Amino acid sequence: MRNIKKIIIHCSDSTFGTAKLIDTWHTKGNGWSAIGYHYVICNGQDQKGKYLEYKDGAIESGRNLDKIGAHARGYNSSSIGICLIGKGDYTQMQLLSLKVVVSDLMLKYDVKKENVIGHREIKGVTKSCPTGFDMDRFRGEL
Fold it and tell me: Which domain holds residue 111?
């Protein structure tokens, strides 16, 4: 079992997506062996802009938890990466699913809520990921 110290929240910076699609982006676009995130939380939007209610808040598995992620340079070996599909506008179902996943992982790996961070909170990261997401508020609700 890996020694997990942080849970890092990301966003896809896209209006649609799934774990399978991000896996394609990461493997073909970046040359990685697999998707970089451990979980993806869908927003219900498909590639054609159609809303699929059953996919809103769907929690999809990405890279196996026993494998080191590829989502936050310098932190991958000791963290779990979770990606919200979206560009700063997340659904209520996504936020509920995120709380469930993060709470479960905090219990399983004994991660304190101050170690649940947004990608942008890592020193040296210049991205705004997760865009439009209030990490302080989220941590306060855990």
Answer: 6-141
Within-domain flag for 1? no
> Residue 56 is which amino acid?
D
**What are the backbone dihedrals phi and psi of residue 19, each rounded to the nearest 5 degrees, phi first?**
-60, -40
69 in a domain, yes or no? yes
What are the tokens at 68? 């080191």
DSSP secondary structure code for residue 77 in this structure: G
Place of tokens 């979206």: 86
123 belongs to a structural domain: yes
Which CATH number does the domain housing residue 29 bear? 3.40.80.10
Residue-level pLDDT, tens digit, the chain, 142 residues: 789 999 999 999 999 999 999 988 878 767 778 899 999 999 999 988 899 999 999 999 999 999 999 999 999 999 999 999 999 999 999 999 999 999 999 999 999 999 999 999 999 888 899 999 999 999 999 9
**CB count in 10 Å sphere of residue 81:** 24
